[in-house]
Amino acid sequence: MTRTLTIPGRYDRLAQACKFVAAAASAAGLDDSESNHCQLAVDEACTNIIEHGYGGEDLGEIRLTCDVAAGELTITIQDAARPFDPQSVPEPDLSAPLDEMRIGGLGLFFMRQVMDAVEFRHQGGGNTLTLIKRTNNRPPSP
Amino acid sequence: MQISTQDSGAIAVVAVSGRVDSSTAPGLEDALKQLVDAEKTQIVLDLLDVEYMSSAGLRAMVSTLKSVKRVNGDLRIANPSPRVEEVLRLAGLTSIFAIYRSRDEAVGSF
Fold this sequence. Notes:
heterodimer; A: alpha+beta; Heat Shock Protein 90; 28% strand; B: 110 residues; alpha/beta; Transcription Regulator spoIIAA; five-stranded mixed sheet
């Protein structure tokens, strides 16, 4: 089953995007923690699209698609922003002393930590990010 | 997101509720900056009622921590939910922030 939501690129729409993903995660049989991971990844991705892709709020839309399968959720996030190269984002340096700590790049870092797959493509005049989360929980025995 | 601030002696206790994301984190950062500007640099951030936090919230907290540490102050955390604590842990910040299970413990730690 596929669900789609298109939001304007605004930070005050992140909560709506999270709610949309939470419902899809529940339908896929993901538990609360797995759902939280999906919400965090989508929030961070949309924030990056708005801040870095579009360069600000109200400059483009974000299309979210959730493909629900038993025990697996595939989230596709599409924008019409400039090409994004994930290799160009340095990892945050979390081990540095506080004064030297860099936490830029934390959003992408989180996505890679909490999702089972993170794939970026640039196509059709925009970027497509695919995120996959699989449940670690066994379905109940029949 | 709602923020309420009260003094507990010399300690400023900032209670946050709701979502802390890219939309609301600037408000949190502003509230904390106002305290620092008023030389209230011993701060307890009570996260009991924070239902969600993204990296935007972490950035606000780290920025404030850097500011208060420069003047021998501190920002200490009370009552993070498991969800918020996980975000702190993923970011490697559980070793940077002092985290307490209750507001009283956090206030008393100063």
